[in-house]
Amino acid sequence: MALTILKVGKFDMLPELEAQLKERGDYYVDSALKADERTAVRARTDIVVASGGSKFQAADFASCPQLKAIVCFSVGYDGIDIASAIAHNVFVTHTPNVLNDDVANTALMLMLNCTRAAKTAQEYIERGAWGKSSALPLTTSIGGKKLGIAGLGRIGKEIAARAAAFKMEIGYFGRHQQTDVAYQYFGSLKDLATWCDVLVLAMPASSENRHCVDLEIMKALGPNGFLINIARGSLVNTDDLITALNSNYIAGAGLDVFEHEPHVPEALQGRSNVSLLPHLGSATKETRRAMAHLVIANLDAILQGQEVITPVPGTRKI
Question: Are 311 and 92 in contact (CB under 8 A)?
Answer without folding.
Answer: yes
